[in-house]
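Regression test case RT-17, inverse folding.

Input:
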């Protein structure tokens, strides 16, 4: 798949460009569940994202911008992610696994 914004190539399982974070408007996946995690460490966040990608779980990371996090009340930088309702249990299991690795 090629990003229409920055022309980067990425896999079809992604709904967001890993380079510019532009969303694929043709994605028919509803990311209707918001999960707030206890993950703030960038390495743990990267691990969780990799595990989501490996499992084929579509996701959208909320508040990637520091200003957006502060305006939304997320002062500690906790990782907040949207996933499809039908994959919520699996996503929460991955998040729990990463949180327990601390």
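Golden output:
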């Amino acid at each position: 798949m090629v990003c229409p914004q920055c022309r980067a190539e990425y896999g079809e399982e992604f709904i967001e460009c890993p380079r510019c974070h532009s969303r694929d408007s043709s994605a028919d996946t509803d990311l209707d569940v918001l999960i707030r995690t206890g993950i703030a460490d960038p390495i743990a966040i990267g691990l969780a994202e990799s595990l989501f990608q490996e499992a084929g779980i579509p996701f959208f990371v909320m508040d990637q911008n520091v200003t957006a996090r502060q305006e939304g009340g997320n002062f500690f930088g906790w990782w907040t992610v949207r996933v499809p309702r039908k994959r919520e249990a699996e996503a929460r299991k991955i998040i729990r696994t990463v949180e327990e690795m601390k």
